[in-house]
């Protein structure tokens, strides 16, 4: 279901419907440790940026973290209510994002296994997630069954990790964050109504 190279390209991890993650020597093809613990298909595998850890997402609704050298299980991340389709590490390797058929993305702390935030603004399952850092800022991009690509800004605040939607490719949805419009000319009746409901339109309009 999923294959990925380690950051240095020396190892390969594969996730399978046989409920395991297998490690392979990329040069020789020799099989390494078999990572067992999932109770359903392994849909997605990812290496941490330094290659020391592997995350796997499964149809058993969990994300599992493994030592990439010996295959030892380190954490089980529980909270999703449907299949986990995609997992990715943050550039620092300290967090993980997981996308699920439960129409959410969850952010996790790698060290503690704690769920840091749940993004729920989807009308379909999330099949793909990617995380990057640019100019000191953290960004997440998601691909969903609701036919959207969305980009999010991730910020660590005193009260925890905050996620803000920056844009969406889905034309029939309207997302507004920290904005106030003084008029709604040119918007469809539905979008104008949504803006007013969200308090983003001056009440005099």
Layout: helices, strands, pairs:
Blueprint: E1 2-5, E2 11-15, E3 20-25, E4 31-36, E5 42-47, E6 53-58, E7 62-67, E8 73-78, E9 84-89, E10 95-100, E11 105-109, E12 115-119, E13 126-134, E14 137-144, E15 149-157, E16 160-168, H1 189-197
Antiparallel strand pairs: 1-2, 2-3, 3-4, 5-6, 6-7, 7-8, 9-10, 10-11, 11-12, 13-14, 14-15, 15-16
Radius of gyration: 19 Å
Strand order of the largest sheet: 1-2-3-4
**Largest sheet, if any?**
4 strands, antiparallel
What is the tally of beta strands? 16
Pfam families: WD40 (PF00400)
Protein name: WD40 repeat-like protein
InterPro entries: WD40/YVTN_repeat-like_dom_sf, WD40_G-protein_beta-like, WD40_PAC1, WD40_repeat_CS, WD40_repeat_dom_sf, WD40_rpt
Keywords: Repeat, WD repeat
